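Supplementary Methods. Inverse-folding protocol.

Structures were first reduced to a discrete structure-token string of length 495. This string, shown here, constituted the complete conditioning input.
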């Protein structure tokens, strides 16, 4: 029997309306607009850590997932994890570590089918949803709506294509993704998926999706049409829990290779957008993984850096289009989970964010938050300099998101003098952002010629083009639509 329960971040403690993991994954967002969180965090014992260190990535994943998803059958979870993280999908291993220098380690999360870290969750989540539909006796189709700043869309499409009982629509900001990201999504195969651009930026796309979720009339209309809405964004618990795994896995690998001793505290640095990935790292820490500090790295859209510094979350500011588009976000949805965790009145703050565009978190919450988190941000020129210097000095090629993380980590080290070893989440292959990476390296290339860019970058750096990216170049373009934000709600009824 299941004992782990989930409830909404907007619920008051007395009225906790609990659901099982399967229900939380099926629903995506709680009915009151909040995000599902577990009622407690399972603890990692020494025995757990010893066992985990001896396992493959897939085994580690099923071990940790079953601690949270205790309503799922263990053997089924193990089989699903083996299929999701196998050699065919992650050639060379799911989350390998590259040592950049004496203290900094890059956790490469982009060796999956779409060359971005979203694969780490989205290869397993469709299986979790599919099981959840069966476990809850669901007969209607799950219609998944995804707002993407580029990488989630493709990774979700690849994870959910041709999965039974599921349909999916992906919305991306028309001018907010890289040419490669656009090409990856426009050429997506699968009979159950639809892709469209949205006029506006990522927040417009995300707000549009949230508005559909929050609309009771649309939910009723969907039901009449034999489906219900669900999400694959990191607001869904099924996205978050698989992301806890690689932090624990990385720690085990560092212990196994003798880079750290079991028990040593490490720093974790995460290039952050929606706050999902870094919140997963926080949960790993809450489970007992020795993480001494979490660095929240942002680009010029530095709303989180300001928040950590001042306690004021203010989205009413200029939106910057940067070379790290997956972090071009002014509303970091998963921050709500952390605020709730630290005891903030989440419903009230989120209502303020909605009406006034800003809120101030209570001082005691900020104090607890700063005990763990530090925020830094990097501008465009500094990001390009990190890409260039890291390649020239450390012989390591990083994408712009990872570069933001590395630059922020080094600023933190310079300011704090902290010399503990650090795991940097490397979130995308540099080939997904080949134009900006070439520019940073002073290699000239035509930014509209995707194939030429990949070949130029490969020749200039002596690195290999990831096979999944080479493959989309020859595929036919299937999706060319652009919709206005106001028309997004029509999509699930027309496609
Ligand atoms: C999604 C994404 C991020 C941000 O992750 P969050 O979980 O949204 O904070 C960072 N880098 C890349 C390459 C991404 O695709």
């Amino acid at each position: 029997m299941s004992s782990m329960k989930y409830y909404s971040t907007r619920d008051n403690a007395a009225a906790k309306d609990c659901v099982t993991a399967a229900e939380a994954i099926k629903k995506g967002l709680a009915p009151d607009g909040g995000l599902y969180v577990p009622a407690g965090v399972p603890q990692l014992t020494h025995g757990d850590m010893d066992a985990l260190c001896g396992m493959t990535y897939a085994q580690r994943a099923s071990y940790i997932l079953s601690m949270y998803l205790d309503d799922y059958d263990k053997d089924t979870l193990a089989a699903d994890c083996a299929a999701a993280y196998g050699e065919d999908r992650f050639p060379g291993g799911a989350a390998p570590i590259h040592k950049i220098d004496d203290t900094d380690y890059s956790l490469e999360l982009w060796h999956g089918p779409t060359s971005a870290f979203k694969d780490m969750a989205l290869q397993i989540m469709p299986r979790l949803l599919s099981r959840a539909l069966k476990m809850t006796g669901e007969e209607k189709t799950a219609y998944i709506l995804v707002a993407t700043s580029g990488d989630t869309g493709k990774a979700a499409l690849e994870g959910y294509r041709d999965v039974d009982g599921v349909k999916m629509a992906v919305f991306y900001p028309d001018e907010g993704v890289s040419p490669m990201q656009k090409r990856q999504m426009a050429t997506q195969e699968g009979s159950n998926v639809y892709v469209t651009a949205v006029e506006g930026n990522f927040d417009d796309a995300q707000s549009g999706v949230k508005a559909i979720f929050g609309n009771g009339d649309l939910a009723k209309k969907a039901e009449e049409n034999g489906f219900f809405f669900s999400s694959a964004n990191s607001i869904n618990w099924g996205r978050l829990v698989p992301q806890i795994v690689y932090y624990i896995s990385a720690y085990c690998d560092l212990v196994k290779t003798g880079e750290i001793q079991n028990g040593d505290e490490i720093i974790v640095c995460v290039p952050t957008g929606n706050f999902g990935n870094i919140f997963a790292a926080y949960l790993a820490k809450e489970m007992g993984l020795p993480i001494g500090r979490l660095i929240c790295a942002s680009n010029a859209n530095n709303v989180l850096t300001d928040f950590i510094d001042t306690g004021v979350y203010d989205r009413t500011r200029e939106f910057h289009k940067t070379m790290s588009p997956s972090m071009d976000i002014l509303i970091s949805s998963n921050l709500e989970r952390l605020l709730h965790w630290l005891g903030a009145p989440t419903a009230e703050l989120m209502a303020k964010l909605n009406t006034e565009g800003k809120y101030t978190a209570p001082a005691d919450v900020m104090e607890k938050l700063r005990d763990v988190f530090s925020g830094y941000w990097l501008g465009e020129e500094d990001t390009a300099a990190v890409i260039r210097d890291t390649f020239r000095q450390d012989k390591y090629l990083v994408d712009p998101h990872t570069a933001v993380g590395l630059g922020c980590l080094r600023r933190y080290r310079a300011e704090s003098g902290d010399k503990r070893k650090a795991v940097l989440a490397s979130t995308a292959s540099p080939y997904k952002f080949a134009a900006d990476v070439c520019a940073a390296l002073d290699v000239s290339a035509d930014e509209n010629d995707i194939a030429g860019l990949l070949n130029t970058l490969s020749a200039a750096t002596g690195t290999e083009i990831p096979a999944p990216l080479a493959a989309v170049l020859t595929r036919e373009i299937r999706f060319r639509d652009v919709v206005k934000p106001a028309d997004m709600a029509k999509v699930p009824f027309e496609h």
